[in-house]
Every structure is written in C-alpha cells, then in structure tokens.
Amino acid sequence: MTEPVDYPALVLKRGEDARLRAGHAWVFSNEVDVQRTPLTEFEPGQACAILDSREKPIGVGYVNPHSLICARLVARGLDHALDKSLFVHRLNVALSLRERLYDEPYYRLVFGEADGLPGLTVDRFGDVLVAQTTTAGMERLKDPITEALVKTLKPAAVWWKNDAAVRALEGLPSYADLGYGDGALPLEAREGGLRFAVDPVGGQKTGWFYDQRANRDQLARFVAGKRVLDVCSYLGGWGLRAAAMGASEVVCVDASADAVEALAANAERNGLAASVRAVRADAFDHLRALREARERFDVVILDPPAFVKRRKDLAEGKQAYRRLNELGMQVLARDGILVTCSCSYHMPRATLLEGIQLGARHLDRQAQVLVQLQQAPDHPVHPAIPETDYLKGYILRVLPA
Predict the structure, then answer these.
(1) Which CATH class for the 84-187 domain?
(2) Distance between CA 104 and CA 95 in Å, rounded?
C-alpha cells in the first residue's frame, strides 16, 4: 500500500473547499486559514497537502504565498507525490488523447489544468518539445518534468520558453533555454499538409498557435477562388492555409518585421509565394488605408492578440474588438465572409458577438453566423475550470442591410 505523502499542510477556511471538490484546481489567498497555516511559512513553489477546515485531505499541490492564486491542486488525495512518477502518468494520459486525435506528432501535448498539470504547457514539434511553466510550483519541478518528458516521449530536445508575462505575477524571471538534447533551430510545425518554420526562442508563445488548427481546417469551403485578407497573420497559419485551399490571392498583415519575413519564407517553402503577399503594418492603420483605397476582399480573417488580458481591461477591449471588426467589414466585398476571433478569456463569447452586431448595424450591414469557433481539441476544456475555455470566434456572412 502506498504511504501518504508527508507535505506541510495548507488548511482552508470553512466552506472554501467547495470549488476544489467540484473539480477546480485553484486556491485563492483569502480562502486559506492563515491562523492555522500562515502563508508566510511557505516558500514559493513549495509542495503542500491541501486540507479542508476539518483537516480532511483534498489533495496535493503547491503554494506561492506571494500570488493571489496562492495554491494549485495537482493530485487528489495524499497518495501521489509531486515527482517524476506522477508526471509520467499524466503525460501518458495526455499523449493517449493526442495520438487519438492526430496522425502526426504536431500538437499541444499538455494544456495546464485541463491535463491535470496546472502551470505547465508543452507543445510538440515532431521530436522536439517546447515547454513553459507559468507558476512557481511548476518552475521548481522543472527537473522531474524534464525527466518525465524524456522517459515518455524520448525527444531529441526539450526547450523551456519561460517568458510569458503571467510569470511576473508569480515572481518568476523571463528566459528561454535548452533543457535537454540538441538545440538546433528553427523547428518545424506541420498543419494541413504545409510546413512552417517555427522559432520557439524568439517567436510568440511557444512558437506556434495549435489552438486555431481546427478552425483553420474549416476555411476550404469559403476561400477557394477568393481574395483573402489575413490580419495579424504571424507565421501565416490562416493565410497560407487559405492559399493552399485555392484562394486566388492572399494578403497577410502583421506588425512584426520578423513575422512578415518568416511568413514570406514559409510561403516560399510551401510553393505558395505566387499567391501570397506579406505586409508589415499595424492592423488598424492598414485596414483604414485599405478602406480609403476602396480595396475589397471576399474573405477577411481577424485573429488579433488578446485585447482583454485582465478583467479590468474589458471595457476598453470590447471597443477594440468592435473597431477591428467594423474595419474588417468595411473592406469586405458584397456578400463577404468575416472570420473573427478572440483569445481573451475575459472577453465573453456573447459580448464578442454583440460587438460584431453593433458594428454591422453601424455600417448598415447584416451579419449571419455560419460557424462558431473554439479552441482545438488538443486544448481540452475542463468543465469545472472555466478559465480553460478561452478561445472563441465566428465565421460570418456579411450582407447589405
């Protein structure tokens, strides 16, 4: 019989265990009984046993006394230590889903809380893994995580891309380094029969946005033979997929010179340079310029970075999404298709659609929702953790009123 772990206790106030018992993984600092278990007695990232007010065990997790989310539950009960063995098990469970979903090893392997590993993200690029920790607890466990990744997947390399802004909330530094193996760059992402060069060190996030793959798969019936505008195009996931699906012309717009250069190289790599043009420009400024030039596109794709990173940004972010969608509709041809997304968790799906509708009415247009978009299944949503459900979007038909 397994001996229960002997971690220091973190005791919750009366009634504050309900969310954890319902399936969530977060403990907030005001939920801890600091008279019995002062947070100041814990080190950032220290393992703990989380107990309810009657000192009955809920499970094992880790603590950061300096963070609003002061603890995260990793394993229920006290039978599992936070060690290589637990990580190997969780990785095998995560891997079994991805191997069921995809024919090739290009996907998000670990999606934090949804895969039972809060604070950890792992993307797979063939035989190379790019991992990211966003909490002090997972940062402290990097070595056993790396060992578990090597044991489970036998990768050629493991990169740590630990530069997410959220790490500052945990008091963590920003860096990117090689954790294991051969660090040859760039990496390659494969999607829809195309090959994209990816830089996990200098690129955005872990280098690629697998969360939009299932949404990009739906483009084919809308783009064949059409003129397409891809705004906030990054490495060309949307735009190059549209070109490969038969778009007659694709204009890709991004504010990053590096992204524009990489996109053009990816177009060459896939034999699509003749139909793809990359432009370095601010999204809002370029859309206004296209409007003034009376340019029109059959399909406009808007996949901006998050405008609502915190709840207090919602009012301003709502207006930004509405302005962007209005500008997108103004360069749409008659009876055009608008593909629009938000990766802001704090931006409700209904609010995004409301802004699109307000913009359409302001322009004397009418919109029809054809497809509702969400994150790909390698980013599973945990039913008890709404924070795991962040990506939303629509494919709409836009008509004169």
Answers:
(1) alpha beta
(2) 12
Residues 6+ apart with CB under 8 A from 374: 214, 215, 389, 391, 392, 393
pLDDT tens digits for range 67-103: 999 999 999 999 999 999 999 999 999 999 999 999 9
For β-strands 187-191 and 194-198, DSSP reports them as: antiparallel
Active-site amino acid positions: 343
DSSP per residue, 315-367: HHHHHHHHHHHHHHHHTEEEEEEEEEEE--TTS-HHHHHHHHHHHHHHTTEEE
The answer to whether the CB of 156 falls within 8 A of the CB of 128 is: yes
Average pLDDT over residues 317-324: 94
> Structure pTM?
0.95
Under DSSP, the state recorded for 192 is: T
Amino acid at 269: R
Q: In which residue ranges of the chain is CATH 3.30.750.80 found?
A: 84-187
Does domain 209-400 correspond to CATH entry 3.40.50.150? yes
Q: Are strands 332-342 and 392-400 parallel, antiparallel or unpaired?
A: antiparallel
Q: How far apart are CA 252 and CA 273, in angstroms?
A: 12
Strands (E), 144-285: 157-162, 175-181, 187-191, 194-198, 227-231, 249-254, 276-280
Q: Out of 3.40.30.10, 3.40.630.40, 2.30.130.10, 3.30.43.10, select the CATH number for domain 9-76.
A: 2.30.130.10
Q: Within the chain, which residue ranges are assigned CATH 3.40.50.150?
A: 209-400
Is residue 162 within 8 A of residue 145, CB to CB? The reply is no
The model's pLDDT over 228-266, given as tens digits with 9 standing for 90+, comes to 999 999 999 999 999 999 999 999 999 999 999 999 999
